[in-house]
Amino acid sequence: MNRVALETTLILHGVPRDTAPALARELDVIVRAHGAVPALCAVIHGEPIVGVSPAQLEQLFAQPHVSKLNTSSLGPALARKRHGATTVSTTMELAAGAGVRVFATGGLGGVHRNLAHRLDISADLMAFTRFPVGVVTSGCKSILDVANTREMLETLGVPVIGYRTDRFPAFYQRDTGAQSVGVDARFDDLDELAAYLRAELARTARGVVICNPIPTEHEIPGTDFDRWLAEAHAEVEAMAALAVGSVGPGAAVGRDVTPAILGALHRISNGATLRANIALVKDNARVAAELARRL
Ligand code: PSU
Ligand code: MN
Fold it and tell me: Which CATH number fits domain 3-294: 3.40.1790.10, 3.50.50.60, 3.30.230.10, 3.40.366.10?
């Protein structure tokens, strides 16, 4: 049925609340304009939904807080009839269960930096070994350890495909310069990519990472980004340090790290990272729709 799964964590936690409803609408329009049917995923009152209605989305926006669910916290949220935002891992789980084979996101979760201090690896990566969905993504967020995230996908045996690129992109950047890492195969033609994807998903129970780098005109220069990221990390770490051993407000550990750093970056960069984020997600929705239409 040409459906394209979309996630709600990006909408509810990845961008500021005042931009979120417009982004959700735009993604819906883009997917339809390219010949596919959007299926926004979420958990509402413990019900897994693949194709959230506008009224249900309103309901989520009206909540003061909606938990970000990964594959480990999905089950308890269902059992307790909670609301939840799906991340890449849980959107893949719901999409696979509903027979949706293509999903558009912004960037994957991955291996966080500073591994020696704390082991923090997103459940997104493991999800690719279990759910047969092609995920169109601009690589993994450059707030992560991009090279080690790419290595981890290799270790897990997950195919990493470059759409019109042979580098593994780093979200705000098409490539990571000196740290640049490659993909398993490059496809320039959507028909050929769709044929490969159809065969791969039918042959294995694995997902496929389809890298679509940020459009060149929206790329953020690496030197600007590195400066902003250093500031954002310092802020988030200072907050976390303040809260150690207490339940202090502002503590960002575990699954709160990604939204905290993204939020700090959007602020520090004066909205530049937010604009880039929105641009790349929209382009990924377009490519995902083009693929879904061909499956
Ligand atoms: N892409 C974005 N913004 C986001 C995310 C992805 O452009 O907010 C979300 C995705 O839902 C992804 C999650 O699954 O961040 C990763 O979180 P963690 O590192 O805690 O696994
Ligand atoms: Mn994590």
Answer: 3.40.1790.10
